[in-house]
Specification:
14 helices; alpha/beta; about 300 residues; about 15% strand; 8 strands
Length: about 300
């Protein structure tokens, strides 16, 4: 019999402080550490705030107020049945910046969190000091790559298409203690990290968090909106809304061995970037640079936002 864990299991002890913040009409759970300019950390699919535990410490030590959030539908944040469209998710982040008492924030996002950071920078530019995209692409770069590169990027995000049917993907995600979460992370990770004990320990936490009631469905709703919007007017409106270069400075950190968001897609994202350098693409690193090379990512972010 598979046990369903309580959402409070994600409130892992550490030097950080756990708190609940009301933003954009929902309750968001955050872990916070340090004082100084706000750096808001946004996780990707299948993760929760803890994916940033290395960066929380490093950013706080460097003189920043680091806040890692459980996005809508994840961890110990609210899991409403709706609101997984880009506008509402961007509103969650913008509302969180304000609710934390800050005028602006440096946004650091992995995968879906990275695309969300790009989106917030377009829709709420006054709230964004900078964007750091980790293993992520601009949403329009990803859309273009899926259409133009079916053998590379479309195949790499094949799970997006499989997740469109109702009910079955939720059951698939939580089957056997969310074993398929581990399979996905293994296939997307670099060779060094996926053969380490840290991979096993880290993914065990992600598997447990996926079993929290409502998380699997909420996580899949991100994918479902992104796909279905392409056939609706809201998809065209979103393309128009994020079609210009962002004004905030942009840093891109990517793994050359990323098999989910391929490096070419990340490089193509500079078309929508404001002030930026070339994307940093690291050999041997997969889809999770912040976990595979945590010190390197922390130093890169600290140097950039400083």
């Amino acid at each position: 019999m598979q046990l369903t864990p309580d959402p409070s299991i994600v409130r892992i002890d550490g030097p950080w402080t756990h708190r609940d913040v009301s933003a954009n009409g929902i309750r968001l759970h955050v872990a916070e550490l340090g004082d100084g300019p706000l750096v808001l950390l946004l996780h990707g699919f299948g993760e929760f705030w803890w994916t940033w535990h290395h960066q929380l410490r490093g950013l706080a030590d460097a003189g920043f107020r680091a806040v890692a959030v459980d996005l809508r539908g994840y961890g110990d944040s609210d899991k409403p049945p709706r609101g997984y469209d880009a506008w509402t998710l961007a509103g969650d982040v913008g509302g969180l910046v304000k609710a934390l008492g800050a005028r602006r924030a440096h946004l650091v996002g992995h995968a879906w969190g990275g695309m969300l950071a790009w989106t917030v920078a377009s829709l709420h530019p006054r709230l964004v000091s900078s964007v750091t995209a980790v293993g992520a692409a601009h949403p329009l770069a990803l859309k273009s790559a899926v259409l133009r590169s079916p053998r590379r990027q479309a195949r790499a995000v094949g799970h997006l298409f499989r997740f469109q049917v109702p009910m079955a993907p939720e059951k698939w995600l939580v089957r056997d203690g969310a074993a398929n979460v581990e399979s996905l992370f293994h296939s997307w990770s670099g060779p060094v990290w996926r053969s380490s004990s840290d991979f096993t320990d880290t993914v065990a936490r992600f598997r447990q968090a996926m079993l929290i009631p409502g998380v699997a469905h909420s996580a899949l709703e991100y994918y479902r909106w992104a796909f279905r919007a392409q056939f609706r007017g809201e998809g065209r409106r979103f393309t128009d809304a994020v079609g210009e270069r962002v004004t905030a400075p942009v840093l891109q950190l990517h793994g050359a061995a990323d098999t989910c968001i391929v490096p070419e897609t990340a490089r193509a994202s500079v078309h929508w970037a404001g002030p930026h350098g070339e994307p940093r693409v690291w050999p041997g690193v997969g889809h999770f640079p912040h976990l595979e090379e945590p010190d390197r990512v922390t130093k890169s972010v600290v140097d950039f936002v400083s």
